[in-house]
Amino acid sequence: MDITTVGEIAVRSIHIMASGERADFDALIHPEGVNREAVAEPPACRVVGPAGFYATALWLRTAFPGFVHEIHEVVADGNLVAVHATMRGRHAGPFVNYAASGEVEAVFPPTGQEFATTQSHWFRVRDGKILEHWANRDDLGHAKQAGWIPPSPVYLLRMARAKSRARRAA
User: Fold this and answer.
1) CB of 46 within 8 A of CB of 52?
2) How far apart are CA 135 and CA 147, in angstroms?
């Protein structure tokens, strides 16, 4: 597999997070594919293969409908690919973080604020599909732009209520 091909696979896997259908994930994610970032995501996101990656996409779309990734650079070495990108969106739905146990840990109610933060995504490709994914994100910049920090007393109250609702729904 040439470098352009593994780079294209990695970039496509980023873009389907925003708008891909389940069949897109089946086509791009290896049956043994692991998302190493799923530790703070809903338990459905932690499963191996396309189902876990698709669950991550649905989780992100709930909080940030219509988000997009602008790709800046793609570097590949064999089956390893690094992608530098900016994620842009609006915080329009609850963003729920989970503990390792799968319990709701924190909920950030929608603020309506726009954000644009840089991310570096790393992929390992096998058999023309994503086998591993991990990332480095500017989470502090995202939190500031989304209006999560510094939190106002009213926003802290909204977070507590949203967390209670999410725990009841789980």
Assistant:
1) yes
2) 22
Closest listed residue to residue 17, CA positions, set 48, 72, 63 = 63
Distance, C-alpha 83 to centroid of its chain: 14
What's the pTM value of the predicted model, to 2 decimals?
0.93
* pLDDT digit string, tens, across residues 15-31: 999 999 999 999 999 99
Supply φ then ψ for residue 80, to 5 degrees. -105, 130
Alpha carbon of residue 29 to chain centroid: 15
For 122-153, what is each residue's pLDDT tens digit? 999 999 999 999 999 999 999 999 999 998 99
Distances (CA, A) of 91 to 55, 125, 156, 165, 168: 18, 31, 16, 18, 22
For 155, the enclosing helix (H) or strand (E) is helix 153-169
Residue given tokens 């709701």 in the structure block: 104
Burial (CB count within 10 angstroms: exposed 0-12, middle 13-18, buried 19+), residue 97 = middle
Instruction: Put the strands of the sheet holding 80-90 in their side by side order.
Output: 29-35, 129-137, 114-126, 80-90, 68-77
